[in-house]
Every structure is written in C-alpha cells, then in structure tokens.
Fold L-rhamnose isomerase / sugar isomerase.
Amino acid sequence: MQLTKDQIASANGNLNDHEADFNYLANKLSRSGTDVESLVKSLADFQVAVPSWALGAGGTRFGRFSFHGEPGNLEQKMDDVGILHALTQTAGAVSLHIPWDTPQDYAAVKQIANRNGIVFDAINSNTFQDQPGSKYSYKHGSLANTDEAIRAQAVQHNQEVVRIGEKLGSKSLTIWLADGTSFPGQRSFQKALAQTEKSCQEIYTALPEDWSLLIEYKPYEPNFYSTVIMDWGTSFMLANACGDRAYTLVDLGHHLPNTNIEQIVATLMAKGKLGGFHFNDSKYGDDDLTVGSIKPYALFLIFNELVYGMRHNPENPNLAWMIDASHNIKDPLEDLIQSLEAIQEAYAKALLIDQIALSEAQLNHDVVKCQEILQEAYRTDVRPLLQRARLSRGGALSPLAAYRSLKVRENLIRERGMHTVATGL
Ligand code: LRH
Ligand code: MN
C-alpha cells in the first residue's frame, strides 16, 4: 500500500484553521526575534529512522497480542515506513536489524526505499539470540564470551552485517550486547570488559573507512546482575579504545530511574563522542513506550542539550536519530506517528529556547530566570510549526487523523490478511 500526495491533501481538507494558528504563532515568535521560516525548515529537514523491528506487535515474556495486517517481510516493512514518511515527512530513514531483516532481494528492497524516499540508517547486529544452524551459542555471551571461538563467531557476524549494510548504503553499525551475568561470581568483570574491548576493536578495524561504530549501553536485561556495557561511561571508554569513528549510542530506556540523561548527552557531545539515539519513553525499565508519553519535559531538556551541542560542538558528528520502541497494545504505525510527533515537538520547543538569555542568566546565577527561560519555550504550543513543516513537504496536517480517515490499517489487513507476523521483538 502506498499513500499519494493527493490522498493526503484530500485528507487534510481545509487549511484555514492551520493558517490562523500558524500566523498567530509566527507573529508572536517573530516579535521575540525568532526566525520562524528557518525554524520550520529545521523541522522539515529533521529525519528520524524507523526501527524495522517495531512495525509489528511487540510483546513480553507474558504474552504478545497480534496486530492484524502486520508486514510479513522486509518489502512490506519498507512500505510501512513509506506510509509513515508520506504522512509525517519526518520518517525518511529505516534502521535494519540482522538477521531479522536480511534482504532476500537487494534490488527490490532498494527500489522500494527509493520509491518511498527512504534511506538506510545504522544497521544493527544481533548476538543476543542464537541463529538456526549457528555453531556456537551466545547463552553465556558473545563479544565478551570466555570462549575465543564464540567471540570470533560474534565478530564475524558483525562483519557480515556491515557487508549487508554496505550493499544498502548504510554508514554505521550499531552494537548492543546482552552480555552480562545474572549472579555474583558468574564472571570476571575485568576479563569480560577486556575481551569486549578487543572484540570491538576487531570489528572497528574491519569497518569501511567512511563507516562509524555506535556502541549502545544498557544497565540490565536480559541479564539481571551485571551487563558488560552497562552505562555511558563504559561505552565511551570502548569508543575511545576503538578510534575516532566510534561513538556512544544513547537509548533513552537504558538508564536507571531518575538518571540525568540530558547531562550524559551534554557530556558526550562536549567530548565529540555522541553518535546517536534510540528514542522511546519509560516509567520503570526498558519499557520501549511511545516517545514523550511519560516524561515529555525530560525529552525537551535532552533536546536543549542537543541544540546547544549542535551549535557549539563541531567535533561531534551528525547524530543518528532513531526510534527504538515496542508496541504491545497500540497499532504500531499509530504509535510511531505519535513518537515522531513528540520528537518534532521537543526539538521545536528546544529551538525556541533563548540560549543567549539563558547563558546570561546562568552567569548571573539567576536561577529563577533560567527556569523561566526554559519553560517559556516549553509552554509554547508549537504544533502549528510542525504542521507547516509537514505541509511544506506534502505531508499530513494531522498524520494520525489522516491515517484513520484514509483507513490505512483496514487496507493493510485487506492486502495482507489477519495473520501476518512481523519479525522483530
Ligand atoms: C536492546 C535494544 C537494542 C536493540 C534491541 C531491539 O534493549 O534497545 O537497541 O538491538 O533493543
Ligand atoms: Mn535500543
């Protein structure tokens, strides 16, 4: 299924209300010196990669409730990303996970990507599950395993994933390791870290010169006592041990409760080692919930550091913006539409922060004014700006309303049937 610009324009209907809301906001923002046109362009240019593993219903060990009309293969997943991009005009990339999404027909997959205006962002390896026919098991770890042959198998898998990514045009490899322990005494922390560092260096040195390595950290799950790459500091250390094109990837759900993630972001950008994000939200653990559904203010504060960093840390690379979510009860496409909207909203509000006034208030230790400057931006309803950015690229005034009025899910079920199951989590 594909959505045409005409279908979306008809779903948009009359734009008078949008015009009125936009003009009111644009006048208000222009009065305080905001360049509204360039802000709208920044939003329109901001593209987020959709995770290929989150286009079907997710689940937990307690159960999985199917969502009908799921994509049954990579080609259908690409079509679904195309639908998201047609509606939101901000989902112009996909992040694949191997072997869940190993292309069978590269030409067909690339043709669908081109047709939908989608590029291939970071590609993900998987050494947290055993593959049918694989010689060794990753039950006791992969890149950190005590057994050299198992580490070699895991390094080889990562190199194979890079070769797949090269054929598609990806330029970065994301490594997330489940490696760790569930009981004290189960492993030597130092040996596990040393072996992980050596394995990452082997993968890094085999990377094509124009590729980067993104090292994702996580404090726990599926191991519940220790994880080798447990926090930003360990990932940062490993990235430095690898080289200039190795960076830390921040998954918002991979932090212990009340962690100050915006400070981690500022620290990594200051050191030029922030490589990218997995956006989601969480209340307790790695809940992989809709972005901005639990802690929207925290997301805003993170984007404040990102906007500052993008202006003051030229040594930091262009960031890989990706979503990493799991949809246990919502329609996956509606959930992703909400996440894309929340990311755009946080970015727009952060762009409204008067950074000069903020620096001055910080210098004067005017703590109250610092908060007022942040919250003035946060309290601004920026949705007319997001709408304008989408409309400027032929997108939907309200992607969710258009998704429903165009009966996309019903059409997908008619095309694919009730029982297709998407690969992934
Ligand atoms: C681990 C993780 C990682 C992916 C997986 C699907 O929790 O965030 O990014 O490989 O989810
Ligand atoms: Mn992740």
The chain has a mean pLDDT of 97. The chain is about 45% helix and 10% strand. The first helix runs from residue 5 to 12.
